[in-house]
Amino acid sequence: MKITFLGHACLSIEIADCTILVDPFITGNEKAKGIVDIQELNPNYILLTHAHQDHILDVESIAKRVNATIVSNYEIAMHYQAKGFLVHPMNHGGNWIFDFGKVKYTNAIHTSSFPDGTYGGQPGGFIIEANGKTIYIAGDTALTMDMKLIPMQYNLDLAVLPIGDNFTMGIEDAVIAADFLSCKNVLGYHFDTFGFIEINHEQAIERFKVGGKELHLLDIGGSLEI
């Protein structure tokens, strides 16, 4: 399983011959310009954690071009189905076996609305099991005791956690989240995109190291294999 960081909270996940795109916010991200070209992205599936603009901006242009299936909560899925897109609706605690592996839609503590203010359902995250590996993508969330439930069922190979603070967990809470998840291998995301969520990289990596964990902070376009 190859995970590529495309900036902010956007990930590309390659599982065998299938590509999954998570929360595509690329054309609006100044830091991704000149690095990521959405015309070169060809996902089979697009997973959306919630409806905020910095997570859905490029969904329609990408999904229309490649006929990707949009996977998200019921409200978001119905929003895109009404526009003619292929969708797979889910809700919290639900699992589905796709052709690439198994996905569970998990709880997250955040808000969710489309750019025009309409309701975007409740936010969530995803657990993906494929090819003997398991990853947890938290989505935008606060630290929550619900995370303690995950290692009761899953042995995570990687936890993808927001670390930028202000709108989500910050570094200190993310370290605790990794403890709750019983996962020492963490990929940080949702940081540095704009002023509210800028972090000190060296301090963040050291804080996780002190806690007995490894924090990966990838450059945009950088990849991690598990």
Description:
It is a single chain. With 226 residues, the protein is α/β, with parallel strands linked by helices. It has one domain (2-218): Metallo-beta-lactamase, Chain A, CATH 3.60.15.10. The chain is 18% helix and 28% strand. It is built from five helices and 14 strands. The chain has helices spanning 53-56, 59-66, 74-81, 171-181, 201-210; strands spanning 2-5, 11-15, 18-22, 45-47, 69-73, 87-90, 95-97, 102-107, 124-130, 133-137, 158-162, 185-189, 214-216, 223-225. It has a seven-stranded mixed sheet with strand order 6-5-4-3-2-1-14, with helices on one face. The longest helix is centred in the C-terminal third of the chain and has 11 residues, at 171-181. The protein is globular and about 50 Å long. The protein starts with a strand and ends with a strand. The model has no long low-confidence stretch (mean pLDDT 98).
